[in-house]
Design goal:
about 90 residues, mainly alpha, 3 helices, globular
Length: about 90
């Protein structure tokens, strides 16, 4: 019981970093912001479909949370790299 709660809490905390990085990117505007907004929507739809598929095929909620955390980590890495390279220009 403690495992899913802990994983959910970590997901919520980790997702806040992605929200922060995306808001900064969107605030700058331009083509990069438009591409990010479209990517964000596509990722959310894809992740929801993936989660639904996992649950419908007998997967556990813990598996869904673990996979969401993988997506969040990938977005954090991608958006952080974009922010770091943007600050050098």
């Amino acid at each position: 019981m403690f495992g899913p709660c802990y994983s959910s809490a970590l997901l919520a905390l980790e997702a806040q970093r992605v929200v922060e990085l995306r808001l900064v990117k969107l605030a700058w505007g331009g083509l990069d912001a438009q591409v990010e907004a479209q990517l964000m929507i596509a990722e959310k739809v894809s992740a929801a479909l993936e989660a639904t598929g996992t649950l419908l095929t007998g997967g556990s909620p813990e598996a869904v949370i673990a996979r969401y955390r993988e997506h969040v980590a990938a977005n954090t890495t991608r958006l952080s790299a974009a922010t770091d390279s943007g600050s050098e220009a």
